[in-house]
Every structure is written in structure tokens, then in C-alpha cells.
Amino acid sequence: MNRLPQLIGSGTTMADGGQVSFTYRLMVWNMTPEHAALIGGMEWSGGGVTLTRRVMMEAQ
Fold it and tell me: Is the pTM of this model over 0.85?
């Protein structure tokens, strides 16, 4: 799995008066000329809390 191409993006934003840091790690799940799907995970932390979620993004 580590040899598959991945898209990794990170950044920060303000939420509820505090700073939140986030990172997305995505891989191509399905790709056709009419459709694209990415699958992976998103982690965000701020205010002493860190959460991780699975995500799937689609474009048509």
C-alpha cells in the first residue's frame, strides 16, 4: 500500500476561536473519464482533541 500514489495535503484553519490543524491522505479508488473517486483518511486536531475519520471524495 505504501507504494501506491497518494495525495497528502495539510493546513490550518480557525474554528470556535481556536486553531485547527488538519491532514488528508488520499488514494485513487476509481477513475474513469466521467468519474473520479478518492478514498483515505482525514485527521484534525485542535483544542486538545485529535480525531481521525475515513473519507471518500467523488467528482462526476
Answer: no
